[in-house]
Amino acid sequence: MKRLLPLLAVLLSAITFAQTPCQNGNAGPYPCNGLDLQSRIGLNVFGTDRGNDSWGWTDPQDGKEYALMGLGNGTAFVDITDPVNPIYLGKLPTHTDPSTWRDIKVYNNYAFIVSEASGHGIQVFDLTRLRNVSNAPETFTEDAHYNGFGHCHNLVINEETGYAYGVGTSSFSGGPHFVNIQDPLNPVAAGGFSGDNYCHDAQVVIYNGPDTDYTGREIFFGSNEDRVSIVDVTNKSNPIGISNGFYSSVDYTHQGWLTEDQRYFIIGDELDESAFGFNTRTIIFDVTDLDNPVVHFEYEADNEAIDHNGYVKGDEFYLASYRAGLRVFDISNIGGEEMVETKFFDTYPNNNSTNFDGAWSVYPYFASGNIVISDIDRGLFIVRDSSLGVNENATSNFAIYPNPAKDIVNITSKTELINQVEIFNMLGQKVLDLSFDQNLSENVDVSNLQAGMYVMKVNASTTKRLLID
């Protein structure tokens, strides 16, 4: 019990705003639509005066979920497995000086952290250490360090190949700096690309899109201040520039993300709202032909806030939009030149003007449906789609067993008839969708699922974690 007391004290002191459903357009003081507030942790808890980027990690051993939040003076690690009662586990201080900019990505259970601070390089942190924190919040030390560059605006990781790409460094004219991180504790320089000058942010994928000329190649999609830069980085010693994409009224090409079919690249220009008077503008490139990217259409929102970081998950686009908070769009008809805002959670309730406050980034990839928003001024928010219903920690009408399971999972209820069971993997992708004839007990065959952690959703309302052996 004594070991639990420090954790309990931190847990209780950290939650500066607890679970609040979105009702009549608000969750407490925060304007919202379709997203419930689970909890918020203020910056004072983290011992800093500003926040920035965020990412997430799911422990493959037990399915626990962790938010990783960049701070002015380091990186915070928070156990959000119970999103209503998050636990601040500790902070990794900055390698050199504080900075407004810090970026975090994850590969093979390690966090890789960069900053614009001079001489910072890449900090490498073993995330499995979070399993054994007994005296939270701890002050962590890095497990390894890469000094092949100093300051770095952002870091991109292709988890399929084990390569990291530092962008906005003083090397390669600010273009991508390649680092082999296949052995996470021994990162090795692997070249770079300077053909398109400074790169601010990027996404790198093993290409499986419609342009068969590049199938299976490792392709870099860069947001390079005044253009989209597409580069073949398969051969690290000989990267090849493929093409540039340009659009009108450009001011600062900031960040972009591919649709899951790799047919469209959705980008934001960080300064066009203030420079040209647009409402929040999103530019959608058609990259069906990688040699000739063209603007497919532009979307303009109903508010004037500046867009920042956006990510695609399935048919939804999650955009951290500074003073307008998190905005979620249905992009299922993006081919028909349509984006529809369906949900939002405004972490900056004062106004939606064109200023650099509010939501910096969002991480929507937890299988549980928990969504992390990192806010410059107000800290870490955990929100959740209102349609997901109660948390699995709450009282539920359903029981599932065995759990862990190998072949068959039995679902039982004393009162509510079972009509649908959906199972999602850790990337939030639906891997099983079954309909039933309204019984109180059903068996679900999971023998074709790979071992790992999943989320089971019953009757489109109740979620349960499921471990497959």
From TrEMBL:
It holds the Pfam family Por_Secre_tail. Coiled coil: none annotated. It comes from the Bacteria. Residues 400-466 form the Secretion system C-terminal sorting domain. Keywords: Signal. Residues 1-18 form the signal peptide. This is Choice-of-anchor B family protein. It comes from Aequorivita iocasae. The lineage of its organism: Bacteria, Pseudomonadati, Bacteroidota, Flavobacteriia, Flavobacteriales.
